[in-house]
């Protein structure tokens, strides 16, 4: 993909901002203090436009190239390069969901609060012991007059400690729903668990007959099914873009290291066997970039092949992002497995993205199902 001048400025602006305002030394300090998110920094990041690209122009949002999700993917790559913390993917996903909702007018104030960083709403869709799927199965909703009762468990919920509310998918009463559920609603319980990505909170959210008014419905029926499917595509494509940023940065400093590290009087970059392995890593990186760009463009255009391309990207990037970083660990030798080196931080971020919102195996199965359906048709 050839970037326009505006896209180049967007990418460079966020790259400089992250490296200056949230260097890895500051990220490590947050981890040591037990803080997952600096809300002041997150507000400043949102004011720069990190959560505005998918919002409609009438609310002060919009992309810069006419392809907002592609533009957002450029920012996601810089998030991965810098390991910047914050609910970047979740906030943009929720903004997209609220602005596309049949009840979008009702959510304008919340969307603007999300765009400014004043509020955080995270996505609660994944369910325990359930294969990767686009529709909820175990979280149920029952109608009780004009109220709805929500019961069940969602897991892999990101930033559940910092969020103000959850965008929850559920099934029941003869329909599929998405609700906005405030964090302090009676009957709702959160349980954080230790996260592989050190500056991110994650855990389970339990709903024990949580009472919800009809006004909390974001979408229902076919609109909800379509919305959930799009949300899965958005999160998958942006995770791949973030993983590319991790891969690019690790490849860069590994290449520098190979020219600085000497063995038997010569840089290790001069050894042919290591050159071959670096060539493999470069191939994985370039292929990951290509397939992710295709996935972002397809989702942005609502193309019919978007589900297939996103799953291809998630399967390929999920596998080779961690493979590339593991190779980099080997090139660094003993220092590569120390706490002080940044390699493990990039490996943690990439491994987290690999196993959430569908593993490579899950997405390979989905590609197989799509191809089989095409053959039968």
Per DSSP, the total helix count is 11
CATH superfamily of the largest domain: Butyryl-CoA Dehydrogenase, subunit A, domain 3
Uncertain parts: none
Q: Topology as H/E string?
A: HHHHHHEEEEEEEEHEEHHHH
**Overall pLDDT level:** 94
List the topology elements.
Elements: H1 5-21, H2 24-33, H3 39-47, H4 68-82, H5 88-100, H6 108-116, E1 121-124, E2 140-144, E3 147-158, E4 165-172, E5 175-182, E6 188-193, E7 202-213, E8 217-220, H7 222-260, E9 262-263, E10 266-267, H8 272-300, H9 306-332, H10 343-355, H11 360-376
Q: Mind explaining what this structure looks like?
A:
This protein is of the alpha+beta class and 377 residues long. The chain has 3 domains: 115 residues, Butyryl-Coa Dehydrogenase, subunit A, domain 1, CATH 1.10.540; 99 residues, Butyryl-CoA Dehydrogenase, subunit A, domain 2; 149 residues, Butyryl-CoA Dehydrogenase, subunit A, domain 3 (Up-down Bundle), CATH 1.20.140. It has 11 helices and 10 strands. Strands 1-4-5-8 form a 4-stranded mixed β-sheet, covered by helices on one side. Helix 7 packs antiparallel against helix 8 and helix 9 packs antiparallel against helix 11.
